[in-house]
């Protein structure tokens, strides 16, 4: 029986994974080591009981008494705080799904790689902030990373085991998010509620707003560069409002393999959980006749400066990924809190990248977790004021 840990079990990806695991037979199909979550300890405890987990961990120390209470009589251990998350990730498990949102996923993800585990990675921030370190750690320990982001899962599947270095080009698609058809002048006044309505995918609020700003795609381009080792000029983005084609792999002979499917994350999560096998998944079959047409357009970098910033960050290399990611997280916090407008987010990220570029050591890829976190802290401080 495969042993499994889910980091960020109570989020959108975590709930979808839980659904798949329960449908597969729950504790009869998997031996669950750890489940982690945030403040929703009631739900975390409920999931831990349903899956008979060894340990449940909340990211917040002050929630430990509530988690203990919710687990009373179950025999399931309770733990809390960032260090407990890392310890949970370090416990042996065959498969670990990282579905934490943000740079908070980096330390637990690295703990999985340090022990040579298999990391099913939804937390793209891990690769954006620390791609070189993450890939080098996996290479050193023999750990395996399986992509869970739908576009990267699609590339991985379309490659069919071929080396990405041998292909001509990889294109990931973007729905265009909530504002794909808005006049550009209106974007500056977009509200949090408007940015939180995704046309195609049901996801956590942060990634939904990142889809509207295209920062999600900016992160994904960097994620593709780091994970597949592709040169930046060989990674493209196409706006595809229907979200049916998730990625295209173009071979040197001009042949293009695309990966298609209904926009349901349970496909990519289930694919990674079952890999290298394929098993039936509860996703709607693709009905192209009903769909009728699929449309594509080039992304507009005036509407979405995030895509230009991703290209500039890839060209800069070094600590740029860590800075872009953390500055974006800070700018998103400020937008959510009403401190800045929607279009200010890209300006804040650009300001942070500009200032970081003048700092010593910016051109070197961070070689350990502490230096990633130092750049992360610098970027958050700078993004609060830079524009
Ligand atoms: P979410 O906000 O719904 O859930 C995030 C999870 O992380 C929750 O369990 C939450 O409690 C936990 N968490 C939040 N802050 C934390 C912290 N500081 N420390 C530890 N745990 C913390 O997010 P989501 O939409 O499920 O996305 C999770 C990750 O997957 C993100 O990296 C996102 O970019 C990526 N992703 C999501 C989707 C999707 O469809 N939702 C698709 C592709 C990739
Ligand atoms: Mg994606």
Please explain how this structure is put together:
- This protein folds into 3 domains: 2-147, 3-Layer(aba) Sandwich (Rossmann fold), CATH 3.40.50.720; 150-263 and 285-301, no CATH class; 317-387, Rna Polymerase Sigma Factor, Chain: A.
- Helices cover 46% and strands 14% of the residues.
- The protein is built from 17 helices and 11 strands.
- The strands form 2 sheets. It has a 7-stranded parallel β-sheet, with helices on both faces. A 4-stranded mixed β-sheet has the order 9-8-10-11, covered by helices on one side.
- It is globular and about 55 Å long.
- It binds nicotinamide-adenine-dinucleotide and magnesium ion.
- Nicotinamide-adenine-dinucleotide binds next to α1 and α10.
Topology of this structure?
Elements: E1 2-7, H1 12-23, E2 30-37, H2 41-51, E3 55-58, H3 64-70, E4 77-80, H4 82-90, E5 95-98, H5 106-114, E6 118-121, H6 125-141, E7 144-147, H7 150-159, E8 169-174, H8 184-187, H9 192-195, H10 205-213, H11 215-228, E9 235-239, E10 245-250, E11 256-260, H12 265-274, H13 288-291, H14 305-316, H15 320-336, H16 344-357, H17 369-383
The structure holds nicotinamide-adenine-dinucleotide and magnesium ion.
The site of magnesium ion has 4 residues, from helix 7.
